[in-house]
Amino acid sequence: MPLFQNIEEFKNVSPALQWAIFIVGCLILIVALISTIVSIWLAVKYVIYNRTQNKAGINGEQTARKILDNHDLKHIKVSVVGSLMFGNSYSHFFKKIRLRRWTVKKNSISSMAMGAQKSCLAILDKEGDKDMKTRIVLTPFIYFGPLMFLPIVIIGVLLDILLFKFSGVATVISAVLGLSFYLASFVMSLMVLKTEVKAQRKALEILEKDNLATSEERSMMKDLFKLYNIQYVNDLILEFLELILRVLMLIAKLQNSSSSDSSK
């Protein structure tokens, strides 16, 4: 039985495509549910650890500054950014570490973890880590690659209108091309995760070596890092599935339109 038999715009869509849309839609719901649960758990853990004072009595900014100075990175600045607009990050191009205002000044486990981890990205950069080098080169594409999808599809639609008399061929080709850009960006985003994980491990090692965090505190930070990593992967998968659904819906509309025209 067709999945969209009661929806006019899908009445001529092939059963295989209907099932593909249905399956991707179900996957989106599953991943979204998992992502919501992880987000809630991460928020709870973050608040708990952000209210837990670290034994060293230093905040995120001081942690980052101390680690940077100890590794001859005095030229790297540590700045404070707004709580909602920007996240904790390291910029190779601006030689700067940015930490959220609502945690950076606290002498908490969360604040220390963020300051240490982001400063370790700068250390990886200084050491010429292969994955970090790749991340730096690909950073523009990682962020702007997904944004190319819509313009490419619009160009395809215009070509269909101007040159191919609404055949849908150019639209489908452009959609596939745009999807390939997004897929490439998705794969590259995994490289970002790889460097983040490396920096997390390095941060825990430095905090232990310099006696800045106890074993219990490092265990809390490890839990926090793990949840961040899971959430990052969930978000990537969810965005990719949503894009696939859009492409399938576009193909379905073109298929339906083509069938309708041929029946006239």
Radius of gyration: 24 Å
The pLDDT mean sits at 84
Q: Percent range for helical residues?
A: over 70%
Poorly predicted sequence stretches spanning 5 or more consecutive residues: none
Biggest sheet: strand arrangement:
1-3-2
Strand tally is 3
**Proportion of residues in extended strands:** under 5%
Distance between the termini: 25 Å
- Structural class from helices and strands? mainly alpha
Largest beta-sheet details:
3 strands, mixed
Give me the strand/helix succession. HHEEEHHHHHH
Specify the overall morphology: elongated
Total of helices: 8
Structure in a nutshell:
With 264 residues, the protein is mostly helical. The protein contains 8 helices and 3 strands; from the N terminus they run ααβββαααααα.
List the main descriptive attributes of the protein structure presented here.
71% helix, 8 helices, mainly alpha, three-stranded mixed beta sheet, 264 residues, 3 strands
